[in-house]
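Known limitations

Files may contain more than one protein. Parsers should not assume a single record per file. Below, a two-record file is shown to illustrate correct handling: read the sequence, read the token line, then continue until end of file.
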Amino acid sequence: MKRRRITEIFPFLLPLRRAQRRFCFYIKMFFDKNHYVKTKNEEPLPFSIYESKSTLLNEKTGFDMKYQENKVFNLHLAAETVNKILIRPEETFSFWQLVRYAEKYEKYKDGLCVINDNLVTVPGGGLCQLSNMLFWLFLHTPLTIIERHPHKIMTFPYPDPDEPEGIDATVSEGWLDLKVKNETNITFQILISFDDSYIYGRILTDMDTDYKYEITNRDKIFYKEHDKIYEQVSIYQQKIDKNTNEIIAESKLYTNLCEIGYSLPKDIEIINKGE
């Protein structure tokens, strides 16, 4: 039998537990000797090395669309703390070091979030869409990923059919962060913007480079084990010469594994574990 958490037995202790986790979370970063980014530059840096976009409203969640609209509100608040930030040499970007200040003037609205493998509504729900985009942008740079956490369960399908799979970075204040360190001599800048349909992300630099990065999915399978269905997919990074378009280097970054929490199309092949 799975052991129950103390906060599941006594739910009134949950706010105290969260406050304790947040305190320890930031105290640890205060003493970890990283130089966390804080500086913004109102003027964009001259070179754009990668850009992406993501659909704001997902109509496939099964929940009232007001929670998607609330998510968009939350994303605007959080993105303001990240937009135009510089990641200079030897500096470390932390999602929560910046986003924790998002509620300074306005409070988050209730959005969707996965807690204990269940999709529920919580204040600030939906911020993972921003951390997912940032992680995707970072993968197209030479920045070093020092902390990233995948979602354990995918609760609804990707809204965009061309959206890469297994490229996610869930965040939870006090527990899970997204961090990258700049171990190059280049300064990077994050730009985030919105229109009615999309959130846009760009990575800029202060100097041009003669290479670019591409991220690919390989070896994707769905399998069933103990009455649960999982998706397994490998993620590769290719470093490509801009002038010749030749692959300079290729590396497997990781294999992503998550449980599928929605009904797959009937034409998807699902293998049994061990076949």
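...continuing to the second record:
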Amino acid sequence: MSHSAATPHSSVTVRFAPSPTGYLHIGNARPALFNWLFALRHGGSFILRLDDTDRERSREDYADAILRDIDWLGIKPHRFERQSLRTAAYDAAVLRLKQAGRLYACYETADELDRRRKRQMARGLPPIYDRAGLRLSDAEKAALEAEGRKPHWRFKLDETAGHVTWDDLVRGHESVDIGSLSDPVLVREDGSYLYTLPSVVDDVDMGVTHVIRGDDHVTNTGVQIQIFQALSDFVPVFGHHNTLTTASGEGLSKRTGALSLGSLAEAGYEPMAVASLAVLIGTSAPVEAVPDLVTLAETVDLSMVSKSPARFDPADLDGLNAKLLHATGFAAVADRLGAMGVGGGEAFWNIARANIVKLADARGWWQVVTGPLVEMAPADAGDAPLLAAAIELLPEEPFDGETWKRWTDAIKAATGRKGRALFMPLRLALTGLDHGPELAALLPLIGRRNTMDRLGERLRSAAAAE
């Protein structure tokens, strides 16, 4: 049975449906971003839908964190839904499937099913459910329920269909052998729903045209296509992208908190550095810092995604983050700098941004401007004459972009020092560091008073070292 990629919907509608049972990690960000970028690329809409039907594990603080993290990435859902509020729709779907003979009651316990699977494997048979529930008479069902057993409900796959096939947006032609699968459980003994049924019902009701998710769902898709066909005359287009692992190749889990979006935000990474790496890694596109999601949507297409897992190394974020900030104009960071107590306006930002990896690093360079200096290498006694000349020859204010050259030319003429022997003692005296922004630009911000005080302190330190 082949599923066509054609869709009766005139526009694109995608969804991201995380469960609020933990914090979103970088692996969850990948499908969220792929869906959002697909919607941007095609002028479609994006639904954020919380899969919160697991009453025991779902938590409201996780739900709040998902909303916060999605917003931090720059994703702005057009619609927000909670599956926990849609039970009536799922109940109605269950009734329809029962009436159609596609949902049947089973009474085996988990232990009984496990033993049955092991016996089948020992006999060289595939460990799939044998549909014993379908063979139960009404009297047998009543007897089992009299024992206190409650049924779980399985969806009867149409094995006569053979292979379910579809044209995958990422993987091309895909096929799942329905005969190799067990009839999936859709309703638990306690009446709660597994992921599969609510997902399909919601996709139908909400007009989802494209389902884009990780390739760990490929087999599920064969099952879900049959459920779609049992409930509707519409089946969405599917795309299964490769999944992310840690740098060491391990899978990511919400339960461990590894590489959570919240922790990456707290560590000071820019959202677009995270988004760029989360999307571009494992594709044929170069991994580079992309300034915004619109540009990223224009850069990457699902056909560029590899079929092999992609390894996410957070160390790669530093380079991307730095490149983003180096290219960021002052207006985009002005409020954030102000909130950190960093002044100096655009002049300071234009000097500092080439020397930072994370925005918080700007605080350190503002400290260099305003003082007191927090780092200071020991002064060299041999630098005392140079420092004394620097004090004597320091020009009067106002300082401008040419002050540094005029000043150091005068010091060079007076002392004979040049190159590193001239510039490094002055840099250490003025900044306490042996690296950093061009002093020609930094000197006007430091100002004459600070410069004179620092030179004097350095000269005293050099004299004491004699």
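Parsers that stop after the first record will miss the second one. For reference, the second record is described as follows. Residues 439-464 form the longest helix (26 residues).
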